[in-house]
């Protein structure tokens, strides 16, 4: 069953938006986005011309300006955030910051436990529920000096009904899901980094929709302890950030503090983002999403590829390369076998919510998943796993010939919808590949953000980050200027 089927979408009924949401539309240009990079201010912290306290206040000013329209947060504690920023300010003044992210304003997706806030997962079942502990990633961020503003809106259990969050550039459009509030908060400049999750598309797609950087590391490279599980073989902790440098520094702070999921030692690489590196060969992937992609978005992607090729990078595609064609063939029905894996593995915890609280307490998307799982058997799940294994083999076959893969992050800009958070056709393949992917906010379509997705090979996250830096430098430079 396709994850965009009419029968499924028809069940995604949600309550109407609050009447006091302020409608707006802001034209997006990649070089003039609303996001606010913390790493870009670090030199001024060292020089004493700026402080984490002043930086936080700029973020809070953005919150006052944008939150009435965006509704990214479930709850926050601004007094605690100001106190944490003041402590970071003293450390930078003394020349003893705890890490490159000491004082960075961050937000936490409301699927992830926090000691100081409830974790409610956009579900009435968990209203007011409080674990009284920090998830591993939250603990690591705090120990690195990050300033936690609060919890951000998620779709129900990261898979079901949407919350009230709107796209920061057009309130008639979705911010994407399931990391809706995290992407919107970063995209609107309210925080520099927010934690998300990705089991299918939940970091890469909303980051692309909201004009933010998204980083889905190799599977298990970041510790998911304290993150409510959904489908364990595909659950990732994701990073949504205002810049490549913010994303990498935040991810490395988590890896340094709590590692990965055992026995993975954790994300490897330098503490700060690696220097940009020009790739030799990149693979263009159209995936299932190309057929869904409108002409303006196709043109933006083609233009980016042309600039990359002109800069001396060889581009392989399915039309002229048999291995790429074989990979594209494996991706032709990726939505279907990914959905089978999701449905089978998500039986727990989703079944227990229905068993303990009744069908009426969960949304239509979750009910659909459970019905899909009930129609499967272990053999169907094994067939889906075999298809995923074949996909991974075909990706690995290109390791000796290519440095990475390029695709869009989504099938066009954010859709004009609220209940449906958009197609997963572009992001979900690399969730199944379990290798790293970046959504880079370097394109625009219809005056809205359009993410360019850079995918890599498993455990080569730092190398992919370096390539992302080169692509960013190239695509943000004047076309007459060569990199």
Automatic annotation (TrEMBL):
Region annotated Disordered, chain positions: 161-181
Pfam families named in the record: Amidase (PF01425)
SUPFAM superfamilies in alphabetical order: Amidase signature (AS) enzymes
Domain Amidase: 56-465
Protein name: Amidase family protein
Organism: Roseomonas elaeocarpi
């Amino acid at each position: 069953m396709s994850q965009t089927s009419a029968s499924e979408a028809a069940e995604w009924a949600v309550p109407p938006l609050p009447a006091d949401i302020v409608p707006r539309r802001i034209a997006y240009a990649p070089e003039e986005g609303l996001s606010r990079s913390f790493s870009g201010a670090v030199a001024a912290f060292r020089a004493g011309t700026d402080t984490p306290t002043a930086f936080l206040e700029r973020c809070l000013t953005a919150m006052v300006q944008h939150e009435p329209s965006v509704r990214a947060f479930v709850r926050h504690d601004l007094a605690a955030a100001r106190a944490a920023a003041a402590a970071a300010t003293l450390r930078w003044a003394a020349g003893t910051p705890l890490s490159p992210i000491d004082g960075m304003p961050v937000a936490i997706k409301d699927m992830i436990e926090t000691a100081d806030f409830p974790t409610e997962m956009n579900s009435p079942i968990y209203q007011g529920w409080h674990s009284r502990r920090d998830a591993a990633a939250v603990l690591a961020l705090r120990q690195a000096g990050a300033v936690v503003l609060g919890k951000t809106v998620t779709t129900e259990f990261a898979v079901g009904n949407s919350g009230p969050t709107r796209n920061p550039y057009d309130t008639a459009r979705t911010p994407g899901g399931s990391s809706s509030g995290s992407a919107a908060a970063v995209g609107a400049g309210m925080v520099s980094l927010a934690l998300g999750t990705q089991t299918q598309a939940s970091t890469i797609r909303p980051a692309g929709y909201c004009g933010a950087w998204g980083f889905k590391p190799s599977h298990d490279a970041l510790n998911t302890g304290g993150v409510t599980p959904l489908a364990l073989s595909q659950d990732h902790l994701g990073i949504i950030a205002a810049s490549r440098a913010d994303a990498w520094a935040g991810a490395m702070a988590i890896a340094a503090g709590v590692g990965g999921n055992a026995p993975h030692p954790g994300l490897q690489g330098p503490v700060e983002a690696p220097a940009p590196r020009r790739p030799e060969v990149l693979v263009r992937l159209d995936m299932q999403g190309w057929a869904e992609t409108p002409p303006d978005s196709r043109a933006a992607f083609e233009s980016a590829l042309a600039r990359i090729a002109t800069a001396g990078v060889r581009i392989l595609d399915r039309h002229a390369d048999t291995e790429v064609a074989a990979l594209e063939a494996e991706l032709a029905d990726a939505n279907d076998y990914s959905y089978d894996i999701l449905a089978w593995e998500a039986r727990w915890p989703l079944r227990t919510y229905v068993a303990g609280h009744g069908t009426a307490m969960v949304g239509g998307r979750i009910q659909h998943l459970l019905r899909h799982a009930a129609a499967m058997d272990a053999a169907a799940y094994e067939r889906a796993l075999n298809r995923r294994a074949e996909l991974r083999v075909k990706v690995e076959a290109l390791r000796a010939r290519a440095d990475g893969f390029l695709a869009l992050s989504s099938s066009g800009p954010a859709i004009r919808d609220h209940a449906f958070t958009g197609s997963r056709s572009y992001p979900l393949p690399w969730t199944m590949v379990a290798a790293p992917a970046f959504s880079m906010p370097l394109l625009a379509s219809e005056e809205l953000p359009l993410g360019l997705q850079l995918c890599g090979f498993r455990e080569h996250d730092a190398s992919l980050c370096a390539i992302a830096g080169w692509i960013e430098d190239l695509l943000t430079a004047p076309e007459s200027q060569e990199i």
